[in-house]
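User: Thanks for the earlier help. One more: N-acyl homoserine lactonase family protein. Can you show the sequence and predicted structure together?

Assistant: Of course, both are below.
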Amino acid sequence: MFEVHAIRYATRDGLRGQHFLGYDDTWAEPHPTAYYVWLAVSDTRAVVIDAGLEPGSGPAGIEFACAPHEGVAALGVDPADVDTLVLSHLHYDHTGAAARFPAARRVVQRTEADYWTGPVAKRITRERWLVSEPDLATMLDPERLDLLDGDRELAPGLSVHRVGGHTAGMQLTRVWTAAGWVVLASDAAHFTENLVQDRPGPILHSMPGIYHAYDRAKALADDPALIVPGHDPEVTAGFPRSGPYSVRIA
């Protein structure tokens, strides 16, 4: 059994039109986005889901509260003791601070790695800007990498599930907790509203994959309230605080 924490390390202002596919009358309304990494910790394991960004990196407008590894340390876990780093996908805001977890094996779907290193991704400019070439070289170092072909149990009570949609090899993380099965959706669903309204965001690889990811997240979680979206500021309002930068999901 694991405890699961959402660590909010940064925030950025935005507009609804930047976060939901399709124009409507609410396009220009303010709609902030939050940046998270997640910690799943048991008596014997410390697993981080997504690495986040180093402060000062990324596009203009991101306001950092801490470095992701500092948020992990604030929960009493030494980043050097994290044994597994699950990368839900390889966009820059999920890979940039991976070096701060020096002992961790990196878990990536082979579909994701193959897509970003293959010949087609370089030609799709609407997606390519989301990936850091230096990060790719680091993430895909075979000495540290576990490439998966689909769903896999990483430890009793913790598994990953390939869904695609947002990216070619997007994966969910499912964790057994005292509250039941929690699903860390990461960017498979940026906001709870994506799931409630069945409305994708504009950054996507495959529209059918997006809807498959929504359905899979709902099937894997014991309760819709235990599906944790990847960038929703409301996550920190909906769960009890567990540290200076984090809330306890379960």
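User: Great, one quick takeaway?

Assistant: Residues 189 and 229 are 5 Å apart (CA to CA).
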